[in-house]
Amino acid sequence: MNGFPTPLTRYWIKQWPNGKVTPQFKPDTAEEVLWGDKNSGMTGLRFVPFSPKFAEKIREKGVLAIPSSLPSVDIPLDPSETVRVRRLQALTQGSCYLCHNCKSMFDWQEPTPPYPACPKCGTVNHWYCDVHGQIDDPIFFDREEENGRTVTEARCPICSDPHGLVRSTDLEIVDRPPEFRVKYNVQVPGAEIEFDETNIKVLRSCLTNTTPTS
Amino acid sequence: MPSTVIIECLTGVNGTPQTITNHRFNLGDTPVPGLTNPLRVPTSGTADSWWCSHRAKYSGAYTELSDFKLSSSGSIAAAWALGTGGMVRIGTKLTGDSGCPDGSYQQAAGSTSPLTGYALDDVANGHAYYNNPETDLVDNFDNYPAANPLLIDSGPYGPNVTGHTKHWCLQCRYGSDAAPGDRVTQTVTLTWAEI
Q1: Is A170 found in the same domain as A189?
Q2: Is A24 a domain residue?
Q3: Fewest C-beta in 10 Å: which of A196, B31, B45, B98?
Q4: In angstroms, what separates the C-alpha of A190 from chain B's closest C-alpha?
Q5: Cβ <8 Å between B185 and A95
Q6: Do residue A5 and residue B7 have CB atoms under 8 angstroms apart?
Q7: Which distant-in-sequence residues (6+ apart) come within 8 Å of A198 by Cβ?
Q8: How many domains does chain A have?
Q9: Sequence-ordered list of residues with C-beta below 8 angstroms from that of A20, at least 6 positions apart, any chain
């Protein structure tokens, strides 16, 4: 597995005093310009969403640009100010159940047994005896192996001799598709700006320690 | 292009990495255990899974990566009903990064009688990077939800370096009153800052 590139929802544009700009992606070639170590001397910083056409061009370069109509974020700067920009990435992984009957994927939220059931079609895994068919009340039997480990066998309650059961795999635990989230954090003197797909928040350090007076 | 980040599991004497997308706590030292070496509810007290060592591998074009943090749902113990004393535990340091550097990697192990993994903070058989109570705390992973993630590796790394973070160690503790059987799948979230 080679992993997934983290997605981008906006790209930055540095604005300079001479009127020139440096975009994160060159408009003609979609080539990426890394942020580098130039954190001051700007008159402004913009974070702009990708148009569908530009996003497609960038994705051809292997960057997962997400097109949207998100609002741009414009931050005016004094060239003497130093800005700190970070893109906060979150990667969530885990597993979930795949129902082979209806092909839906789901989390099983019951904290204790009974066993998982597909919320869409109701499919559950069953125990089967090759003599008596589906067994709903198997006998669980602990058996010690040669290496000292104990394994639990499910046995048929009807067969007179010990007879192991096989469990169906209609519900199978599979990898959950990775989930990425992106949030931008921009720090300028006296303020911190955070924004993602749903919120734009401005935090002002001069207000964080104030005490209301009566 | 921005960074690409994947999760790796370290196993074996030397910590051989293997890419994973989930982990099942078990009584063995294998990156993808499937249904082998399942946890066994102890007859009394608590027992532990063998610990696991995970890390993030990063690559791609970027200026800087930093502040790798790990968080849980915050309610794993309740969701899994792990019994008295049960929880998912994670090795932390009282100050600085809680991730374990490569040089301090330690292979997981356990005993067969009683059937349990060694506790991370066991003075005799635990993880040497996390079993000093003066500097370490093996904590309930539920104490690190998204609002209070655990700092694994502050970095910074880059520019354009392919590498990996320090690794984090998790293990599952379960009590004698825990019900046997499959458990709710849980998610783990890794966050980092990038430019």
Answers
A1: no
A2: yes
A3: B45
A4: 21
A5: yes
A6: no
A7: none
A8: 2
A9: none
CB contact under 8 A, A3 and B57: yes
CA distance B3 to chain A (A): 6
Taking chain B, what is the end-to-end CA distance rounded to the nearest angstrom?
11
Is pLDDT of B22 > 90?
Answer: no
Question: What is the span of the domain harbouring residue A150?
Answer: 95-175
Please report, for chain B, the start and end positions of each structural domain, with discontinuous segments joined by +: 4-23+40-178
Beta strands in chain A (DSSP E): 4-5, 10-15, 21-23, 44-49, 73-76, 84-93, 95-99, 105-106, 127-129, 133-135, 139-144, 150-155, 166-167, 171-175, 179-188, 191-195, 200-204
Shared domain for A86 and A28, answered yes or no, is: yes
In whole angstroms, how far apart are CA B191 and each of B59, B68, B71, B72?
A: 15, 6, 8, 11
What is the tens place of the pLDDT at every residue in A184-202? 999 999 899 999 988 999 9
Query: Is A77 part of a structural domain of the chain?
Result: yes
Residue A55 maps to a domain = yes
% of chain A residues with pLDDT over 70: 86
Q: Where are the alpha helices (DSSP H) in chain A?
A: 52-59
Q: Could you say which of B4, B78, B193 has the minimum Cβ distance to residue A4?
A: B4
Same domain, A18 and A36: yes
Contact A175 B3 (CB under 8 A): no
Q: Indicate if A168 and A99 belong to the same structural domain.
A: yes
pLDDT bracket for residue B145 (50, 70, 90) = very high
A113 shares its domain with A186: no
Instruction: Kindly determine whether residue B21 and residue A113, on different chains, have CB atoms separated by under 8 Å.
Output: no
Looking at beta carbons, which residues of chain B come within 8 Å of A88? 191-194
Considering the domain architecture, whether residues A43 and A83 belong to the same structural domain is answered as yes
Cα of A29 to nearest chain B Cα, Å: 14
Q: What is residue A160's three-state secondary structure? A: coil
User: In this predicted model, what pLDDT tens digit does every residue of B110-122 receive, in sequence order?
Assistant: 998 899 999 999 9
pLDDT value at position A191?
92
